[in-house]
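Batch manifest line 437
LIGAND: guanosine-5'-diphosphate
JOB: complex structure
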Amino acid sequence: ISATFQDIVRSITGKATISPKNIEEAVEQIKYALLEADVHVRVVRRFVNQTIQEATGERVLKSVTPGQQFVKILYDKLVSFLGDERQDLTLKGPDTLSIILLAGLQGSGKTTTAAKLALHLKKKGRRPLLVAADLARPAAIDQLETLGASIDVPVYTDRSQKDPRAVVKRALSHAKRQAVDTLIVDTAGRHQVDRELMDELSRLVRDLSPDEALLVADAMTGQTAVDVAKAFNEAVGITGVVLTKFDSDTRGGAALSIRTITGAPIKFIGVGEKVDDLEPFYPDRIASRILGMGDVVTLVEKARELTEAEEAEKLQEKIKKATFTLEDYLEQFQKIKKMGSLQKLAELVPGMEAALGGQEIDEKAIRREEAIILSMTPAERRNPRIIGPSRKKRIARGSGTSVYEVNRLLKNFEKTRLMMKKMLKQKGMQQSMPTSW
Ligand code: GDP
Ligand code: MG
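JOB STATUS: finished
ARTIFACT:
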């Protein structure tokens, strides 16, 4: 995709803000690129719509182009669609037996993944037992035995059984007598999703109520993998996905689709045929892979930090020169809301934290204070001293608040302004060198 994304960036370079108009062409290209990466049509539509919505109106940072910034927005959105945080297996403590069930189509990589997971858990100090519950082909049992031997993990087999449930039941009681804390159950697959397979699986899941019912899906099969994931999730209720054959030329489109359509977290990716070719699934890394533009993302992140620091510096100047007005105060509210946390702002503006006295930001209170300031005339905002009783009444009426609240806001503002000034002075005295930020 990377070549296409380069074009996208070029097409919106030089624009001041991101608008639906100037990203129109880019959006078309993104749709195309995502479809090319084998992302499901419905996912593409949902993804693109949300990205446009979020990107529109965003002010472009000084040292980057709108195109670059748009790539960053795309990237963030991708990470969020891919699940944000890494999700590990959720297993019980080592004193209680945990069960992992693997399901999927034939050839998707279940047996290989069973061994990979066994090795992964063994390295973490757990004691797994592989259970051969794929009774469709005798060769499947041999395959698991060979793999188990190669990683020195025991394999439970029972060639006399025809019903996988019976095998698992026996494996369970076997496990209780052995030093085993995790059962990894390899099951049979079919070429296609069919009733019989699903019935067998739901019976197994009902019997076992596994800690993890993982779908093993072949990333190379793109659209099919998505349909399979959907069918398995509806029939069995999966707790997560292992995407295999990620080492092939795939760009991760299947990951985006599967995650979005099933909502089930992708927990691991298979990156080769060997038993240690298993990696945790990191949404941010996969997003970079889909976009192929990790360096742009870093650039924009840096630019954003710079801009924030610059704005803080300007604010500091204003406070020093006592030109910090209610307008700046209002701007702070808007920033707090945008940044989502007061903590971040407080880090940038000395005195801010103390002025707020550790008080929690109350969204509603901020909105009311905002309304009050917005009801003032520019002159009043610049010089609140001119606000006498009749002006206060007018402002209260205009903002749908009370004179009491207007008074409180003015007091808060004055307190903040003084506190900031004081803090800045102290800071200046402590440091003999002028601070650069
Ligand atoms: P099952 O039928 O679902 O049990 O699938 P298998 O575990 O037997 O795997 C089918 C084929 O896919 C085998 O040749 C495996 O070596 C291969 N395979 C499984 N996982 C991966 C992977 O992550 N990458 C690659 N390249 N091959 C894989
Ligand atoms: Mg198999």
